[in-house]
Amino acid sequence: LRFSCGVGGGLVQAGGSLRLSCTISGTRFSINSMNWYRQTPGKEREWVARASTDGTIGYADSALGRFTITANYAKRTTALHMMSLKPEDSAVYYCNVKYRRGFSTYEYDSWGQGTLVTVSS
Q: Where does the pLDDT of residue 8 fall: very low under 50, low under 70, confident under 90, or very high at 90 and above?
């Protein structure tokens, strides 16, 4: 799969907003879910939000009430709308898609290249 990801402004002051977006392209795959993760230096990559094709939406506690994930499965796009940003939200954000091929139930993982978000205090 190929990812085309962008950010509407990578540097923002605390309290501000940003929108991250990703478009996934490729052939012969079916999306199970679109996810956003983030990672800071020296720490494990952490899950932030998920939108599943079964209609479920989930957020990490750190994102609940401030971040909103949207997904258009037909267009294979996802966005993460982030509000009330805090300095601790600074990280490299990754788009992730979990998908299957053909009639297989095996779930594959694919990752975007990562987008740096910096929130200044």
A: low
